[in-house]
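User: Could you go from structure to sequence for me? I need the amino acid at each position, not a summary. Structure tokens:
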């Protein structure tokens, strides 16, 4: 999804504080999700989750699994079918094997992410940013992003309290990924 936050990428890993363990490092970006087997020869139909569907033309390997662990598959071919992409994966040769992949994310390594123009970023890059208002007051840390359809909403947490900030230009004034800071203007009704 493009907008103030750029292309979407959900980070659905658990909160490391609740389990007492360190959260694994995010390794993959989802570009699709397998929704069903297609035909009898192992082809799968995938919903496209990337703002860059042309990337299937140059992608040689995809990784099926979650954001932290995945199994590599050579992408033998792809073709478009309605709004979905049909994928032929090496080693998946029949409908039974294809059905076992239903629900899996189709991913690429972070290193293979499409470079974005200045001012755009992937949603996973927002997690952990320190949020401050335009006067410099610390408001909390971005813990998640809710994709609502109209606009994304950033979940900011501080001392167990959550602040929900709409990802709109009137609220989000700047995002500096390198510095780890998001500057926001709190409009009436947000707090």
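Assistant: Here is the amino acid at each position, in order:
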């Amino acid at each position: 999804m493009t907008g103030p936050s750029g292309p979407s990428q959900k980070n659905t890993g658990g909160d490391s504080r609740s389990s007492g363990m360190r959260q694994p490092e995010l390794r993959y970006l989802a570009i699709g999700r397998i929704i069903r087997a297609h035909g009898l020869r192992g082809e799968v139909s995938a919903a496209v989750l990337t703002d860059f569907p042309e990337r299937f033309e140059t992608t040689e390997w995809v990784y099926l699994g979650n954001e932290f662990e995945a199994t590599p598959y050579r992408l033998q071919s792809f073709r478009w079918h309605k709004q979905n992409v049909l994928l032929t994966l090496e080693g998946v040769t029949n409908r039974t094997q294809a059905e076992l992949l239903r629900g899996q994310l189709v991913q690429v390594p972070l290193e293979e992410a499409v470079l974005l123009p200045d001012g755009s970023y992937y949603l996973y890059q927002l997690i952990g940013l320190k949020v401050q208002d335009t006067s410099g007051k610390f408001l909390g840390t971005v813990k998640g992003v809710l994709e609502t359809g109209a606009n994304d909403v950033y979940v900011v947490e501080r001392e167990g309290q959550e602040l929900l900030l709409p990802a709109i230009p009137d609220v989000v004034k700047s995002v500096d990924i390198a510095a780890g800071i998001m500057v926001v203007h709190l409009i009436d009704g947000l707090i």
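One structural detail worth keeping in mind: The chain has a mean pLDDT of 85.
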